[in-house]
Each structure stands twice: as structure tokens, then as C-alpha cells.
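SAMPLE LOG
Freezer: B-3
Tube label: C17
Construct: single chain, 405 aa
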Amino acid sequence: MSNFAFGTYRVTDLNPQHIEALKEALYGGVRLIDTATNYMDGGAERAIAHVMNTLPYEIRDEIEIVSKFGYIQGTLLAKHKQNPFEDVVQHSESCYHSIAKSFLHNQLDETLGRLELEKIGCYLIHNPEYFLYECINKKMDKEDMLDKMYARIYEAFTGLEEEVQQGRIGSYGISSNSFALSSSAVDFLPYEDLLTLAQNAAIEVGNKTHSFTTIQLPINILETQGLQCAQWAKANGLRVLVNRPLSGQKDGLLYRLAEYDEPHNYYHALNELLDICNTDKLKKLYTIVEQMDLNKHKYGWIGDYDTFLYGQILPHMQETLQQYNDETLELLLQYIDNFLDEYRKMVQYECSKMTRTALKQELQGCQKKIQLCALEYLKQQNVIDTILVGMRKPTYVSEVLSLNR
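STRUCTURE (predicted):
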């Protein structure tokens, strides 16, 4: 049976609820925390340090922290543009990537500083396949592309073996979305030779044996191709960490594998805001809110709503609110914030209803909430060691840990 770990993808030290959730998870028995240098621009690692420093030593000493490097985003991207890192590939205007040895040493420095530690349990190369994406865009020959990819991974492995030698990490590995693809996919990252690369890197550095111990990849009830990689890993003595257990794709559509209760305060918040906006001056805002209510069931998943909120809804609301003075605006914003909070819950509820209908076959026999069925499926896979779950609220922690009882 698999264990659960606390995933910190959207966790920040600025949110008290995230801090409380992490504390509850650790006191509840969770003993592995997964993070990365780029999560919330370093905020996730700072949150971990904050919580770890409050724990009694008997709990703290049992906890393993796994972090990852590779992404260049946020403030790190600004630093790169001033003083470029080595061997960088550009994925988009806001996302660059590197697994160069010099970059990994730099990022481990930053990680240890934010975590307020001298050593972490495991350090992973984070999605090295970003190099493959660049090669594919350049229409590079597949064999040549993979040769260059392996050379980059080998260099990173030598850097990681050096960090093991210096006592700053206990072991290392790779987190890759490409491990979960079909071997025929153009961006599939072959994994059978990784142990050989690790052993050769250890020899070059002067270590007796390699410290490549861990792979991480997405597996869920909709995306099971990664089980093949997991079987290879277990057969070779590697640990398997699974991410994205509650987000999966089917037929080109993304589903949030979670179920939410209908928010009881939604219509109260909606009607309060509509009553206030029922004036000539606020007619435009009234129309926006009215249309939001009519379309609350039309989002494919909650991420679609978040994108629409920041790209369309908020800019239009801000345009309408520019005519108000501070005192009136402050009161109006309170009603808007309350409505948007309830509206997001309602969208989650509507999306989960559609998910259960769309995934009727996959969820056949599921009498619990979708997320519990999805996690139980993964717990039953004997090739999975640990399931990483984003538990940003104490209620999520309680729900997930109930599966261990």
C-alpha cells in the first residue's frame, strides 16, 4: 500500500491556511514533503522551513524533504536576464529551463537557504524533457536529440553525485511527465539507460556506488501509461513517487478528479451583490454578475474559470469600479469578494457533477467522493511507493489521511 506525501505545488508561506495544513499533515503522520525551487517563487520552501522549525525533534528528524530544480521563472528569470545561466532552453516568454551542473549547484544553494537546512533527503531533476521540446521544434533527428538529452542528464548526474559526496543531499532522481507517455510519443523520455548513466557518473566523481534512487511521474485513473515506467523502476530498486493523482486527461480534455459539495451561501452572496448593483450606475457590473450566474455550469474544469476570471471578468469589473471613491469602493469590493469566493465553489461543484457523468465508466462502483476513489486506486498499485497530494487546507488533509485508517 502506498503512503501519502504533502505536495507543495501551490503552497506559500504567505497563506496561514497552507501553514496550518502542512502542520496537520505532519502531526497526522505524513513523513515526506515534495517541493521545488520554482514553487510559488520559493514561497513553498519558505513555508516548509516555517513549519519544520515549529516541530518537536522526534517528528522533524523523521521527515524527508524532496526538492527539484530545472525551471527558471519569476524572480529567477529576472536574474537570468541580467546574468544568464548556462545551457538554458526557452519554453515560453515566462518559462525557461536548465539542468546544467552549475545551475543545479546554484539552485541547491538557494533551496537549502530557504529551507534553513544543510542537507535534504533527495534532489530531483525537474522535467528534463524541456530540452526535447526545443529539439522537436527545431525538427532535430530523434537519435541525435536523445543523444544530446542523455549527455545533459549525465552532466547533471555528475553534479548530483558531487552533492551527495559533499553531504548536501542524500540521493537524487528525476521527475518527468514524459515518463508517463507512450514509448511511441515524440517527447517520450526513455528511462532504461538512466541507471547506467548514474553508475558512470558515480565512477567519474569517485563514489563507490551511485545515489540515483527516485523517479517521479504522473499517474491517475485516467492516465495509467506511467505504470509501465513504475514497474521498471521497482524492478530496478528505485522508489516511485506519483504526482497529479487528482488531475487527468481523457480524449484531450482535462478533468479535476475531485468532488465538491454545493455551497449553501452561493445564492445569498449572488442576490446581495445583484441588489447592490441594481442601479443605472452599476448596470454593467450587474450584467457581468448575471451572466456569470447563467454560465456557472459551462466550464470544463476549474482551471478554465480561473483563466477566464483573470483574463476577462476582473478587467471588466475593474473598468466599472474606477468611477467610485475609496469609501464606497471598499464596501462594494467586500460584496464582490464574497460573491467570487462562493462562485468559485459553485463552479467546482458544477464541474464535479459533469466529471462524474463524463467518467461514468472509470468511476463505476465509486460510492465515495471522486478524489477518494482516485486515491484508493493508486494505493492499490504495488509499484507506487508514495502519492503526492496537494493538501492546502486542513480539511483536505483530514480527508486524505482518512484513507490510512
